[in-house]
Amino acid sequence: MRILRGGSFLIVAGLALSACQTGRSEPPAATSGQAAAAAPAAAPMPVAPAPAPKVAALPPVNDDPAQLMGLDRDGVNALLGTPDLIRREAPAEIWQYVGGDCVFDVVLYARGQSYAVSYLEARDATAAVRPPRPCLNQLLRARQAVPVS
């Protein structure tokens, strides 16, 4: 008989062991005496639901539109960020912010060499005028949103 080397021996040994299996996938049936003594099948353990993701509470925001009145360009930019659109119609600039379902216009009028906020208007997606506070709140909250790790 010839001696097998290296990996060939392992393959032959594995095949020999697999031939010993009966092919039966169910456990043997219990005898009548064993069946009476067997305990009832246990119910599967319930799986606990995954914990809800942690959401950081956002600090309150000052959503009073009056705080914008009289601010210059830098003040508006510091509060609301870069506008989505700037429209220049001398002697005014209209800074437009779009967030969710609202459009928020901040109108700055020229005051000498600078500009200051003189008028605000909020609209929904259909251009219907709406109160400015909810829209301003939505814009400020969007700037605040930071994912929690």
Describe the structure.
- The chain has 149 residues and is of the alpha+beta class.
- It has a domain at 65-143.
- The chain contains four helices and five strands, in the order αααβββββα.
- The chain has helices at 6-19, 32-37, 73-80, 132-144, and strands spanning 85-89, 92-99, 102-111, 114-124, 129-130.
- A five-stranded antiparallel sheet has the order 1-2-3-4-5.
- β3 and β4 form a beta hairpin.
- The radius of gyration is 37 Å and the shape is elongated.
- The protein starts with 5 loop residues before the first helix and ends in a 5-residue tail after the last helix.
- The model has no long low-confidence stretch (mean pLDDT 79).
Key terms:
single chain; 149 residues; alpha+beta
Read across the widest sheet, the strand sequence of neighbours is 1-2-3-4-5
Backbone structural class: alpha+beta
First-last Cα distance: 66 Å
Order of helices and strands: HHHEEEEEH
Portion of residues within helices = 25-40%
Largest sheet: 5 strands, antiparallel
Gyration radius (Cα, Å) is 37 Å
Please report which band the strand proportion falls in: under 5%, 5-15%, 15-25%, 25-35%, 35-45% or over 45%.
Answer: 15-25%
Which stretches are poorly predicted, pLDDT < 50 over at least 5 residues? Answer: none
> Which whole number gives the mean pLDDT?
79
Give the strand tally.
Answer: 5
Tally the helices: what do you get?
4
Query: How would you describe the shape?
Result: elongated
